[in-house]
Specification:
This protein is of the alpha+beta class. The chain has 14 helices and twelve strands. The strands form three sheets. The protein has a five-stranded antiparallel β-sheet with strand order 2-1-5-4-3, with helices on both faces. It is rod-shaped, with a radius of gyration of 42 Å. The termini are far apart. Bound molecules: adenosine-5'-diphosphate.
Length: about 525
Amino acid sequence: MPGALTAGLFGLVIMLAFYTCVGGLALGLSVGAVAAASALVANALAPTEDQVHAFALGLFVFLVVALAFMIDALTSERRRTASSLARLHEALRALPSTPDLSATLDALAASVTETVDARLAGILLRSAGRLVLASPGAVTGMWTPEEVAAYTTEELDLGEGSPLALALATGRTVVVPDTGGDARFPAWSEHWGTAMVRLGYRSMALVPLRADGQVTGLLGACFARRDGVSRDDVALLEAHAEQASLAIARAQAYEQERAAAEQLAEADRLKSEFLALVSHELRTPLTAAKGFVDTVLLHWDRLDEDRRRGLLERASGNADELARLIGQLLDFARIEANRVEMNPQRLRLRELAEGVVEDLAPVLEHHEVLVEVDRALVVVVDPEAFGHVLVNLLTNAVKYSPPGSCVRLAARVVDAEVVVSVRDEGCGIPPEEQERIFERFYRAPEGDRSRRGTGIGLAIVRRFVDLHGGRVWVESSPGHGSTFSFTLPAVGPEPARIETDRLASEPPPRAVAS
Ligand code: ADP
């Protein structure tokens, strides 16, 4: 072969490779065609002994065209990967500015769809044994998140016979090349796979999301083609999954901070409301007491002795209420400052209870109060703190129940614990409020606030019961009254019943105040 033709053919290869890379297949082939035509002409014009055989020349041109196609395929793949990476980078760069988890995951799902040319992509998070769609934007107009949760729950019921469950259980990416039939998941393919094929999802990849070494969810992508998930796609999906995991961790941290800030703001609001309430609560009995005393002083001569006594008794009742309120505030302040000192003593529960009921007689006078406590029952308590627990529960019982109704203070031994309870026949407490009422400053919602109060009584009760090592709870049904109960732990082998022989000879418990 003459040197000129060899050089020409070599030049043809170089040009074709160059133009295919730079301008695509069409340009490469056009340039190649021109060069090949020139080579053919040059070959035809060359002396016969220097001519290359037409078959060899044709084969060469064929190989060169095949090379052009190969170079084009490689270049397109490279371009696609580069543009995927650029899009991934763009999508990831946009993420930190959006603390809203669902918006972030929606953006990630959209980026997945575009980057790997998926038909559908979504992020599912584990929640209470189910999978919840955390990127609802992906299926807007197609399914509701509830429908997705219902479907995925059914799929998970198949156990490792479902690709979802397998990816969750193994923590590894699962690729289903043909949703219409995958030998690993026969039951799933028959039902869910067929449904997916009908919707146009012919292949699928599921990539686990992780936080602290745990699988917290899945990134799923469905493709229109069978065998539509390439290795590059898996790598890109895994990069997105990593970002989704980070975004979830960040959003959770943000959510925790936001909740803490909200709690602080709420605590602040409750505290201000509490201060306003306390001033009002202190002023009301004070004003009333002063009013009664002033009336007596002003009209001393015109009032007979009974009227004077009545007015002074009411002044005294209000002074008692003021003292109780101040006592409650002092208790609360000591609790808040962690300055409560307990001085537990062995005491007869019945005597303690009767003492409290007696002290509270003016408050309880419009109710029938029954003390049903075994005389033999002995407990180890701090008498002051225990007294305050009973005062708070009894004053609430009469405050939240109609005059004339019955309030029962009872105690029984259950599994070596003493359970003390105060039952009323009052308005009761709705179930959704039963936990909250023990929080400090919590009061019934605005509409039900027909009674005065500060919202610290039950918080004090809970703290004092805690300090005795017990627990407190309420059982109540609105309109049918409430029973507040608390436990006192057992002390010693038979703590609550040290006088068991006397017990048998005692008369049954009786009412002490009514
Ligand atoms: P308050 O000063 O408002 O009575 P508490 O802490 O003692 O504050 O009680 C908190 C809330 O629990 C009350 O506002 C009331 O809604 C509810 N509550 C407490 N005891 C009773 C009861 N015996 N019956 C009905 N509701 C009650």
